[in-house]
């Protein structure tokens, strides 16, 4: 099954226009194997999810952010709010060793898994914070080049939550299913927010629709 997983990861990434080095595929395959093992006893993903579905809806979904983070070629420090089992932040850290990632997750069992994976994968570009983001709002203002979350998909909830952290240059990446979720973006009370880029696509194996929207405040 390990070889099948590597093939799925490589083929799926290629379908998204993302080339993965062999070392990155090895890290992702090990991550996937550990996730499936841990999920038998810890609530990390939906129980009994088939491995090919996990690859598609979790790993490949996370990899769609790679082109956005590589744009411009500058330093990248991404904050992943409510990362859960590491989506998208830990997946991205596996394939972008020159970028930095801060993963915030308040649930201790998931934090234990994340820290285990950071050690197992030998990642030195990841910080795991066992907390919510609210206590860090002042200290973290402007610290990150990018902010994102899969756990809080609704912009009307997520954008006010991270507004204290966002400087004018900060890129906030919204991971959505459809463009309708952006309706009223410019009128949110935590704004003014403006859409600066967007990308629509479907996941390679399930065909599920996805939208990445990059917004800034001010």
Gross morphology is: globular
CATH-defined topology:
Rossmann fold
CATH architecture: 3-Layer(aba) Sandwich
- Spans of at least 5 consecutive residues whose pLDDT stays below 50 are none
Helix and strand string, N-terminal first? HHHHEHEHEEHEEE
Largest sheet entry: 7 strands, mixed
The CATH homologous superfamily is named Vaccinia Virus protein VP39
Overall number of structural domains: 1
Q: Report the mean per-residue pLDDT as an integer.
A: 94
Number of strands: 7
Distance from first to last alpha carbon: 48 Å
Helix content: 25-40%
Q: Which strands sit side by side, in order, in the main sheet?
A: 3-2-1-4-5-7-6
- The CATH C-level name is Alpha Beta
Structural class: alpha/beta
Cα gyration radius (Å): 17 Å
Beta-strand content: 15-25%
Number of helical regions? 7
What does this structure look like?
The chain has a single domain (2-217), classed as 3-Layer(aba) Sandwich (Rossmann fold), CATH 3.40.50.150. 36% of the residues lie in helices and 20% in strands. The chain contains 7 helices and 7 strands. The longest helix has 17 residues, at 22-38.
Write the layout of secondary structure elements.
Blueprint lengths: L1 H14 L6 H17 L12 H13 L2 H5 L6 E5 L7 H7 L4 E5 L3 H14 L4 E4 L16 E4 L5 H8 L8 E6 L16 E10 L6 E9 L1
Parallel strand pairs: 1-2, 1-4, 2-3, 4-5
Antiparallel strand pairs: 5-7, 6-7
Helix pairs in contact: 1-2, 1-3
